[in-house]
Amino acid sequence: MAKTPSARLYDLIHSLTGTEKRHFKLYAREGDNKYNLLFDAMEKQDVFDDYALQELVYPGENIQSRKYSELKAYLYDLILQSLQRYDEHASVDFRIKGYLQHVRVLYRRSRFAEAVDQLAKARRVAIQFEQYTALLEILNWEKQLAYANMDVAFLAAELSRISKEETEAYRELHLCTRLRNLFFELWAIIRQDPAPGQSARQRLLKWKENLDLPETATLTSYTSSVLSLRLQSLMHYAGGEQKAFYRTGKDLLDLMESNRHFLEEDVSEYISALSNFMRSCGELNRIAELEESLEKLRRLKPNTPDDELKIHRQYYQIKFALCIQQADFQEGMRALDNHLQEKEKFNPAFFDRQAFFYTYFYICFGAGDFDRALSFLNQWLQSDKGIERQDLQALARILNLVIHYELGNSVLLDSLLRSTYRFLKKRNSLHQVEQKFIEGIKEAIEAGSAKTERMAFEKLGEEYKRLAASSPQARKLLTRPFHLLAWVDSKIRNQPFYKSLSEYEK
Fold first, then answer.
1. Contacting residues for 310 by C-beta, under 8 A, at least 6 apart
2. Residues 120, 105: Cα–Cα separation, whole Å
3. Whole-number mean pLDDT of the chain?
4. 3-class secondary-structure state, position 409
């Protein structure tokens, strides 16, 4: 038996939901056996300790490591078998496979009439959920059963229909495969350079040159229509076509919501579609539709633990973005506290906080809780994955200056200004927005009075207004993802950041 790494087994056990654990207990039939003992011990461990587990399962025994490894491998396989049996109750794919297994069993025993009954059940489900690969197997069984039963009348009457359905199934499989491949090709192009720039635009244009999309009129199935709209939506997003991104997103949601039985089977794609639609609403300031969709997402019933995690993650990412867009940081703080409490039920191995640290910072900063904002900023800077994108590395260092200025850490700021300048200069692309910011903060901390300090920010504000008016790139750096213009304005007018931000966002 192949070895199973202990950590993999430990992670699998800790990824199970309460219902899945109970199902395993029933499936494995609790008793005085060592795999149940190992399962219970691993489940109770907060920190993985392989030596302690081995001592618990084989107390005082001088055993070979192979024996313990085989036990772990057996338990791993047993859990997978239990999960497979668990999924059979809810999955269309498993239901169809179950019917076809019944067909095979009955066929081998010459119970042809009963096999036909099971095949009819499989056919109804396969057609309803557009399971074309399974449908091809079902059609083949129709011929095989008629031949074995010497049903010449059936073959004479139905062979033409079967042949036509096989052709249509092959066509749909080919079309759906093609659309999926195009989607993944485009997704890979976008992910290679998530920060928009000239190189990303050139790759996108080159990809579009050879693009041969199927005509909409040729899309006769739900599956191919969904895949086509997903591809179009991604194309509009990559091309910065906001209105078209919104329209295709709305069409995709309408299509999905009018075919509820597909959603009952799998909601993962609907979660993504709803999230993308809300992003488009935010870009176009369609707040009422965004809020309505946000509530849809909140009420959505997950089918799997992964669905539950996706719903939580997408809901709060969009909720926080909306609070920032509306400068409603009190609501943002309430949402933040709820989120931090709710996320505790998820396995930390599957919940990526890296994507949230910046948002945590922004919410706390906007609410005026600078100590907490600094804590989240430091966690972002020190996280295991680090900050990979150069634009975000620059942003993090600028924000570090902003927060320490708010906290009045003048002595620390002096050294931070020098290190930030060296870091930005080393990239060989120090932007004027960054250069002017460092100069402005330096003048402000060296000011001898509140009046001269405000004058330093007034000077910086004028420089920023000029840059924003003359360069779209500069304006983007000044407003996204952090609104530097609003912060500088708050210093000039001696008012909270959220007030200046709300005026800019109107």
1. 268, 271, 272, 302
2. 15
3. 88
4. coil
C-alpha to C-alpha distance for 410 and 395, rounded to whole angstroms: 20
Candidate from 59-63, 136-140, 270-274, 385-389 with smallest mean pLDDT: 385-389
**pLDDT score of 277:** 97
Name which of 350, 366, 367 is nearest 312 in CA terms.
350
pLDDT in tens, 325-354: 999 999 999 999 999 999 888 877 666 677
Residue 107 parent element (H or E): helix 92-108
Confidence tier at 1 by pLDDT (50, 70, 90): very low
Q: What is the pLDDT of residues 234-247, one digit of tens each?
A: 999 988 899 999 99
Cis peptide, bond prior to residue 481, ω within 30 of zero = yes
DSSP string for residues in 305-363: HHHHHHHHHHHHHHHHHHHHHTT-HHHHHHHHHHHHHHGGGS-TTT--GGGTHHHHHHH
Amino acid in the structure at residue 78:
L
**Considering the entire predicted model, what is its pTM?**
0.81
Q: Cβ distance 310 to 279 under 8 Å?
A: no
Q: Give the integer Cα–Cα distance in Å for 121 and 351.
A: 40
Length of the chain: 506
Q: How far is CA 471 from the centre of its chain?
A: 33
Q: Are 301 and 263 contacting, i.e. CB atoms less than 8 angstroms apart?
A: no
Q: Whose CA is closest to 17, among 271, 312, 310, 345?
A: 345
From CA 416, how far away is CA 457, in angstroms rounded? 19
Tell me what pLDDT residue 195 has: 54
Other Cβ atoms within 10 Å of 418 Cβ, number: 12
Cα separation of 306 and 266, whole Å? 11
CB of 332 within 8 A of CB of 376? Answer: no
pLDDT class of 253 with cuts at 50, 70, 90: very high
Q: Please tell me the distance from the alpha carbon of residue 439 to that of residue 453, in angstroms, as a whole number.
A: 13
**Rounded CA separation 70/158 (Å):** 52
* Phi, psi (deg, nearest 5) at residue 383: -65, 155
| Cα–Cα distance, 297 to 307 (Å, whole number) | 11
Give the closest residue to 137 by CA, choosing from 104, 92, 172. Answer: 104
How many whole angstroms separate alpha carbon 362 and alpha carbon 373?
Answer: 7
Average pLDDT over residues 492-502: 93
